[in-house]
């Protein structure tokens, strides 16, 4: 597990044989621990430990695809890796009490793993193969996203959660954004449009009452910047340059517009309102599930115009697919 955690994306790509052995070992440990009554294999390690490692590895296409399609695990009785993960998720959530000090870590890791899986079209389709199981999964994820049970699951300082793991409610919301049926998405977008329409009518009504009606009331076009916080310095350089022309357009950026409240909801609204979305692409962007979510939501769901800005020479990963070649490429900055 230590080898996998310390390996860089390039090392994972280049040393395939050694990495495959390590990946098989990690997943084998997960399967063994998942089969124990107390979820501890021979009292040596808890099931949460290999899960936490897998969260990071699932950020890379190479390791995600290997574990989902090619992992050689003798003890795996289910048909696919995804089916095993789903069955374990249902069993663990139902049988482990909320006062178990490791439940929060384990469920959070599982939600992060399913979030990564749901961002890939081929695995998102696999989730739908067993419709009954999919509905059960969706129901449980909605329950976690709502936060109804989350307050009952105790938090503890005895178990460290790495910074690359997002909180389970954020992960659950990310999953729902990717797996909800198109009809549900359309209903949600219709409701949102209706709410926006009400707000616009109210604003227009107020402006009509005002004696200062003029062309300045026309809303300016909006540009959104999608970026990894690890690239904040470059992002601020771009923001400051664009802000010099703020008389022509508005600039939406998270740290200016999301100081409090539900972050993803505000980001989604910012994307909805933006005419153009600038994506600052780098390895940090590719490895961030939040950034992946923003790109997938903007490109696949909203069909927004995206301008990729390559701030490093890093090769885009497979999850970007062919989308990147249909976009305008800016000069590296």
Instruction: Please give the domain count.
Output: 2
First-last Cα distance? 36 Å
Low-confidence stretches: 203-215, 328-332
Major sheet description = 4 strands, parallel
Note down, in words, how this protein is organized:
- There is one protein chain.
- This protein is an alpha/beta fold and 333 residues long.
- It folds into two domains: 2-182, no CATH class; 214-326, Rossmann fold (3-Layer(aba) Sandwich).
- The chain is built from 16 helices and six strands.
- A four-stranded parallel β-sheet has the order 4-3-5-6, sandwiched between helices. A two-stranded antiparallel ribbon has the order 1-2.
- Helix 4 (48-57) packs parallel to helix 7 and helix 7 packs parallel to helix 10.
- The longest helix is centred in the middle third of the chain and has 28 residues, at 182-209.
- It starts with a helix and ends in a 23-residue tail after the last strand.
SSE map:
Layout: H1 2-6, H2 9-14, H3 16-34, E1 40-41, E2 45-46, H4 48-57, H5 61-70, H6 81-95, H7 103-118, H8 121-127, H9 131-146, H10 168-179, H11 182-209, E3 222-226, H12 232-243, E4 250-252, H13 254-257, H14 263-273, E5 276-281, H15 283-287, H16 289-301, E6 305-310
Helix pairs in contact: 3-4, 4-7, 7-10, 9-10
